[in-house]
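Minimal example, chain plus IPE.
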Amino acid sequence: MSDWVILKLGGSILTDKSADCAINRESLDTIAAAVAGAGTDGIIIVHGAGSCGHPEAKRYHLDVGAESGKTDGIYVTHRAVSGLNDAVVTALREKGVAAIGVHPLHVGVADNGRLVAFESRHLEQMLRLGMVPVIHGDVVMDLSRGACIVSGDQLVRYVAAALKIRRVGLATDVPGVLDEGRVVPVITRRMLESLHIGDSKHTDVTGGMRGKIDELLGLADAGIGSDIFHVSRVADFLAGAAHGGTRVRGEEE
Ligand code: IPE
C-alpha cells in the first residue's frame, strides 16, 4: 500500500447542478486552499461532472452508448467536463498546487460501461515529481456500446486499486451517507439492505449516492476502505482527522 491519497470532489460541490454548467468558484477556491494547506505527499484529485457533463450525457443518451454517425454527444460531453477540469486545475494552481489535468477519454477504455484499461503509470510518475493529477468522470470509448460514461467514482475505484492507495476520501454536498436524515457512520455490504438511501434529485446518469456506495463497496471488497464527508471537511480528511462523515469498509476491517 502507498501513502498516496485520492480525493474525489463530487460534481454537486463544483457546480450548481440545477443550472447549465454553472461553476461554483467559491467552493472551488475553498477546496483549493484546503489542498494547498494540507502538505500531504501525493494527492490524486478525481472530480465529477455536475451540470458540466451530466445534462449533455443525458441529452445524447450516452448512458446507453453511441452509434456510428451519431457521435456529437461524445464531443459535447467531453468538452463540457474538460472545461470544468480546466477550472479545477486553474483554481489549484492559483493556490500554488502543481495540478495537471488528465482526461480519461485519452487513457481509458471501457466494455459495457466498465473500465477494462486505464493507463495509470503516468499518474505514479506525476506523483513522484510532486504533481497533483486531476482526473474526472468522462465519456470513454466502449468496446461493446461505442462509448459510455465512466463516473468519477468508478475511476476512484480503478485507480485506488491499481496504485494500491489506501486513503480514499469523497467530498460531497451532504455530511455523509444519510439514512432518514442522520449520518450513517459506517457502511459495510451486509448493512446496506437495512439502510434507506435517497437518490439525487438532479440529472445524474451514473446512479447518485447508491452508485457511489456500490463502487466504494467494490473497493472495500479489495481491502481499501473509503470516507464520505462534507466538502467543508476536506482539510480534516487530508490531515487524517475525524470528519463527521461515513466510512465504507469491508466486513473484517
Ligand atoms: C459523470 O461523472 C461524468 C459525465 C457525465 C461526463 P460523475 O458521475 O462522477 O459526476 P458527479 O459527481 O455525479 O457529478
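Residues 10-11, 48-50, 53-54, 57, 77, 81, 137-139, 149, 151-153, 204-206 surround IPE (CB under 6 Å). DSSP finds nine helices and 16 strands in the chain.
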